[in-house]
Each structure stands twice: as structure tokens, then as C-alpha cells.
TrEMBL record:
Species of origin: Stella humosa
Keywords, ordered alphabetically: Cell wall biogenesis/degradation, Dipeptidase, Hydrolase, Metal-binding, Metalloprotease, Protease, Zinc
Cofactor section: Zn(2+)
PANTHER family found in the cross-reference section: D-ALANYL-D-ALANINE DIPEPTIDASE
Descriptive protein name: D-alanyl-D-alanine dipeptidase
Binding of Zn(2+), residues: 93, 100, 160
Length: 182
């Protein structure tokens, strides 16, 4: 069951990139951008937000649940399985158990991560030493917070986290949503 992320209560900033043209497709994909997650994922996200708040930081979300129909649009824009899950196999986003996010300071400004969200370059991978030491520290801090809150990471994207055992969650089509995102 998907639930909306309660950004106000958790202090999370929601900026769904696929509701704007500022994403790798170059155009809005969501007509009705709503930040949704499975109940278990939403609870783990709230835990991560509390851990960040204890350090004077916050979270900014770029994407959460992503309908399979949106996954196809991203695949058409970037058919690279390193950065976009092949929609024929299904994405953890399309199951409502993945989140793309970054850390923000107490004023809501994104911390330096070395690349932007959705940058399809090798420097987006975790454990890169060819980004600034500040970006390396910030990535490790995000990794530590998310791991402590029960999330798994994807080594090729510093911004992507998902629940373990993704296949136990079904793919959820946009038409099953009320209202639909697309």
C-alpha cells in the first residue's frame, strides 16, 4: 500500500524532479507529482529524517514511487541500465520502495555531492575519489544515515536507496493510482 510522504511532519523537502523538465528526459513526466512510498519505506524514510535532524541536517527527495509508465519514458531518454532500470525487469521505484534524495543543511540548501541528481557519469558512483573531499564526506554521511535507517544503497548512484528484497513488492501501474501521477 502506497502512502504519501508527510513532508511537513518530517521536515523533508519534496522536489519531485520528474514533475519538472529538470531531469534526464528534459521534460516533465508526472502531470500530478505526488511523493508516495510503501508504508514500510515511508517509516524508514521518517527514521532517516530523524537521524539527519539530530545532526542539524534534512533530506530533500527527488523521486520516490515511479510508475512503470514513467520508467519507460526514462528508459527512452537514457537506455543505460547502469543509471535507469530496464522497465521490462521492473524498477524498485515502480514498487514504491526506492527513494532518490540528498542531504540539505539547516537552511534547506543541498550539500555538495560532487554531481547533480541523475547525472549519468561515473562520478555519480559511490566511493569515487575524483570528487571533492567535501562531496565524499557528504555521500558517506548520507550513506551512513540511510543504512542506519534500514535502507540498501545502489553503488552506481549516490542518491538512490531502496528496501532490501525488492521483488517481494509488486509493480504498481499508474492506472492503479487515484489520482494517477501521469
Amino acid at each position: 500500500m502506497l502512502v504519501p510522504v508527510d513532508a511537513q511532519q518530517s521536515g523533508i523537502i519534496v522536489t519531485l524532479a520528474y514533475g519538472t523538465p529538470d531531469n534526464l528526459s528534459g521534460r516533465p513526466i508526472y502531470l500530478n507529482p505526488i511523493c508516495l512510498l510503501q508504508v514500510e519505506a515511508a517509516a524508514k524514510l521518517a527514521h532517516a529524517a530523524r537521524l539527519a535532524q539530530a545532526l542539524g541536517l534534512g533530506l530533500q527527495i527527488f523521486d520516490a514511487y515511479r510508475p512503470p509508465e514513467a520508467q519507460w519514458r526514462l528508459w527512452e531518454a537514457c537506455p543505460d541500465p547502469t543509471f535507469v532500470a530496464d522497465p521490462r525487469r521492473g524498477s524498485p521505484h515502480s514498487r514504491g520502495i526506492a527513494i532518490d534524495l540528498t542531504l540539505v543543511d539547516g537552511n534547506g540548501r543541498a550539500l555538495e555531492m560532487g554531481t547533480g541528481f541523475d547525472a549519468v557519469v561515473d562520478q555519480s558512483h559511490h566511493a569515487r575519489t575524483d570528487v571533492s573531499p567535501e562531496a565524499q564526506r557528504n555521500r558517506l554521511l548520507l550513506l551512513g544515515l540511510m543504512t542506519a535507517a534500514g535502507w540498501d544503497n545502489y553503488s552506481k548512484e549516490w542518491w538512490h536507496y531502496q528496501l532490501f528484497d525488492a521483488k517481494r513488492y509488486p509493480l504498481i501501474a499508474d492506472g492503479a493510482m487515484a489520482p494517477p501521477l501521469m
